[in-house]
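Shipment paperwork, digital attachment
Item: protein structure file
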Amino acid sequence: MKTTDKITTRINDQLIVIEGDKAFMPLGNFLRNEELLTGTKIVCAEGDCGACTVLIAKDVGADGKLSFKAVNSCILPLYLIDGAQVVTVEGIGKQVGMNIELHEVQEKMIDCNGAQCGYCTPGFICAMAGMAEKFKSENKTITEKNAKNYLTGNLCRCTGYGPIVDAMTSVNLDKTQLLKDRYHSADWISEMKNIKSTSVEMKFSDKSIFLPAKLSEALSAKAADGDIRLVAGSTDIGVVVNKGKLSTPKTMALYHIDELRKISHDDKFITVGATVTLTEFEDYIEAYFPEMAKMLHIFASPQIKNQATLIGNVVNASPIADTIPFLMVSDAVVELQNSKGSRDIVLKDFYVGYKKLNMDTSEIVTRIKIPVIAPNEVTRLYKVSMRKDLDISAVTFAARVVIDGKKMTSVRLALGGVAATVARLNDIETKLTGQDFSVKAFEEAAETLDQYIKPLSDLRASSAYRMLVSKNYFKKFAKEISLEIGGGK
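Attachment content:
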């Protein structure tokens, strides 16, 4: 295999080569301390406030040009930007002689008085520029709702969001020069492909980084050392590492492996590769699983979803993960591979305890296959949290029920936040299957929940609250579907 021991990237107009264990450094720290690009701010170091937002292009779009997306640089280690191009706030405006020609979003922030202290402003500018890239490329108009959605990952401490939203909705996309046009270089895109086709292997006395270009190389590495930690988007693990609670001395990332970047469907399954981001998943499933797309819409900020992966959320195995309940009631199939072969396992059998998975240390989760919606099937997903958007769930609920006439021929139910893993309610499913759909049937089922779940109390919710919410979600589901299909009482 072709290998190198360096990370190669572009930051604005400069080609950057990163050597040694500096590759573990968060991008935001590197920008500020090594490249002296201090427009990027580090505040929370958790990917929450957006002050560290930059734009990154790891791939090219259908037009053959770079596809820039906003990400949080504070939790993004440098080894995850090999073969990518980064644009910081310093690169948003265009250098013209000794002057800077401001980007349209920068002009509008000035016109609308959207900036005060300037600490969070660079992050807003990058997020806004990312939005302009997408909306102009797709020939869409920016509405107030769009602007608010795209700025959910940026925290303003003094101006207030009104002027900032006004600035974004005032952007004239016809006057906006896209970064993908300004930074377009056929030579660099060719070099990007070459970089991604070369595996990166960096070894130090007590650390290592491996970025395989082929799946076979990844499987061989995992077979040789089961302690290697796979890192996908680093949106969860990056926070823990930043806070000094975890180290990742032996690290492998799979984003150079083309076959794992794909999402596809046939008449049975939608198949999602290991490195498909949540943004890519959300966009793809809008027409197939609108209820899941709606849940993802409030799941996290654009910066997080542009980097996080679906399978990363699955393997993280949190009992309050927002994607797992839907996948659980879908009877999603996890594909596992090692150097000896592959096997499939239904998701409900994948979790064997808190953060414990039914997989060998030599195995890698390569794909997840989600059965398509059946005829006459209804789906609902609910969550309760301290706030509606971008918050960790206290309780989650998922249901996929097939109703033939009045009879429920298939019932699948799951609750998150009430046990060590997301819980499939097999006994209740069995009792409801074959019954006529009715609100009463679900109300009666709700009253038996205490036989099957024993929620704990913690900082987010008490045991009693979780039980009450779980029962209410049964009733809410039944009443919503009853109104939808004209079912019984």
